[in-house]
Amino acid sequence: MDDLAHARALRDQLGETFCLTYVKGVDAEAALRRLGGCPDTVRTLPDGDVAGPPLAVALALGTWSVVIEPGGTRGADHALLEVASRGTAAVSVLRHDQAAAHFGYAVDGATVTGFDPGYPAEETIWGADPQLLRPLMDALGLRPPSDESQSAWQDAEARAIVLAQRITGVRLPDRPLAAARVAAELEPWFVVPAGGADLLRAGRRTPFAAELLAAAEAAAPDVQRAVAVAEVRRQAAVLGVADSPGLVAALTAGAPVAPDSPLGHRVRGWLATGDRPELRWFLGALRGVLGADPRVAVLAALKPYASALPGLADEPARAAVLAALRDQAR
Could you tell me which residues come within 8 angstroms of residue 108 by beta carbon, excluding any fewer than 6 positions away? Predict the structure, then answer.
């Protein structure tokens, strides 16, 4: 079976939504951990078992390992792919039944090339070197349609799988879900640092944020850290989670939380809770404060003021944190 026919069969077998993430130079379990695999969920599957959600499965193929998410999409997130590529290289291919397909290639923590395989137009390809893969893409037929009558997009994900094979030099077995022996549940919160959308920004819908942002940016690093920790403690008290095991120690240390620690288990429970949106805002703030950068910490801690949620974004609390930033900066 030629490569494209094999990729088509693989696409059809994996279903309408799946993600393949290739990581170079690590074994299967390490590849899972780079994508946020929780250590206490890592397991070896019995012979003949076919994995499915919520598990991701991984197998080693030569110098690369491939993580397969049947029904999942996590590896397509560029921030997570960049984390997985630190010190090495990583490639991801996403098929999604309700969104555009995606291809990503990252090396040593930076995205080299990212694009939608169904419409890889020059103006939509992004990354540090958007044209690096163009010769391979052209050879595989990964190009935008010249008119509406063309249907090359229907094979886009299969061609993207072949492109991944060309980059990595490895081809998945015919029945990869049965062949993969190592599995784990992925939670990227524990490995992806806060940044970008996690941080407070000023905008038309949050005019008050400009004042907070200016005060936070003007503060010294030690002030930023102190205010960030105090603010996350306030939020935890408002939400009734201040007594969570390990929370005070984690905030004091300003270090990442292990997913299999008592606090890690509590965080995983919060992440799985869909009926308390305020916890999502709190988790963004907490992740920022547990990082090493005091500026990121304070801007993440202040982001819940954009939520308009009672308690998290009350005017008295905003005035108090603004005063703390200004008073401590004197």
Answer: 85, 86, 87, 88, 89
- DSSP 3-state assignment of 184? strand
Gap between the Cα atoms of 236 and 230, Å rounded = 10
To the nearest 5 percent, what fractions of the chain are helix, strand and coil? 45, 15, 40
Position 260, amino acid:
D
Strand partners, 95: 18
Looking up tokens 């197998």 gives 59
User: What DSSP letter does each residue of 192-208 carry, written as one string?
Assistant: SPP-GGGS---BTTBTT
Cβ-contact 193, 287 below 8 angstroms: yes
Mean predicted confidence (pLDDT) in 294-322: 93
The pLDDT value recorded for residue 143 is 86
Domain ranges, ordered by start, for the chain? 3-190, 196-329
Distance from the first to the final alpha carbon of the chain:
71
Q: What pLDDT score was predicted for residue 147?
A: 58
Q: How confident is the model at residue 327 (pLDDT cuts 50, 70, 90)?
A: confident
Q: Are 112 and 95 in contact (CB under 8 A)?
A: no
Q: What is the pLDDT of residues 235-267, one digit of tens each?
A: 999 999 999 999 999 999 998 999 999 999 999
What is this structure's pTM?
0.92
Cα separation, 206 vs 284, whole angstroms: 18
CA distances from 115 to 8, 91, 94, 269 (A): 19, 12, 11, 33
Top-confidence residue, 180 or 105: 105
d(CA 308, CA 55): 35
